């Protein structure tokens, strides 16, 4: 290779290297300026974080909603004692009834939770006049 050709290659290579170095320097300066110009971000709370801060303890739940209306698929825990004994969970069927063994069906769909025990007492007292007690929970 001739000396003249070698000088041209070195000259062009050094120009290319200077171009790449200056380009990288320029990009890093722009990126650095962009980072420093960003406003400080506000930390985003982690989903569910409040569960571990005890905020749920301020929520009240009595466990009994008197205005809840029964629907198909609800489960009623029914306890009968006295002349007839029964203790089981009954599911409201597709027709909106619960079936009370030894008594028959009782329509509960749309009935309010607070009205359930009086309705059960009326239904059971049609079959058993004395010595029968009824209790039910949702």
- Provide the number of structural domains: 2
Give the helices and strands as they follow along the chain.
HEEEEHE
Give start-end ranges of low-pLDDT stretches: none
Strand content: 15-25%
Question: Could you tell me how far the N terminus lies from the C terminus, measured between alpha carbons in angstroms?
Answer: 97 Å
Count of individual beta strands: 5
Q: If classified by CATH, what would the architecture of the largest domain be?
A: 2-Layer Sandwich
Structural class category:
alpha+beta
How are the strands of the biggest sheet laid out side by side? 2-1-5
The CATH topology of the largest domain corresponds to wza like fold
Instruction: Work out the helicity level.
Output: 25-40%
Mean pLDDT: 75
Our count of helices gives 2
**What's the CATH first level of the largest domain?**
Alpha Beta
What is the C-alpha radius of gyration, as a whole number of Å?
A: 40 Å
Q: Identify the overall geometry.
A: elongated
Describe the structure in your own words.
This protein is an alpha+beta fold and 138 residues long. The chain folds into two domains: 59 residues, no CATH class; 63 residues, wza like fold (2-Layer Sandwich), CATH 3.30.1950. Helices cover 34% and strands 20% of the residues. The chain is built from two helices and five strands. A three-stranded antiparallel sheet has the order 2-1-5, covered by helices on one side. A two-stranded antiparallel ribbon has the order 3-4. A hairpin with a 3-residue loop joins strand 1 and strand 2. 9% of the residues are buried. The mean pLDDT is 75.
């Amino acid at each position: 290779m001739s000396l003249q050709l070698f000088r041209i290659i070195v000259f062009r290579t050094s120009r290319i290297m200077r171009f790449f170095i200056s380009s990288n320097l320029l990009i890093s300066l722009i990126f650095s300026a962009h980072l420093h110009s960003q406003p400080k971000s506000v930390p985003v709370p982690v989903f569910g974080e409040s569960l571990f801060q005890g905020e749920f303890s301020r929520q009240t739940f009595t466990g009994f909603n008197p205005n809840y209306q029964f629907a198909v698929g609800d489960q009623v825990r029914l306890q009968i004692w006295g002349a007839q004994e029964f203790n089981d969970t009954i599911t409201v069927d597709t027709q909106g009834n619960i079936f009370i063994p030894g008594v028959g069906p009782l329509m509960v769909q749309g009935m309010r939770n607070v009205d359930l025990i009086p309705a059960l007492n009326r239904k059971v007292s049609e079959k058993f006049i004395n010595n029968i007690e009824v209790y039910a929970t949702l």
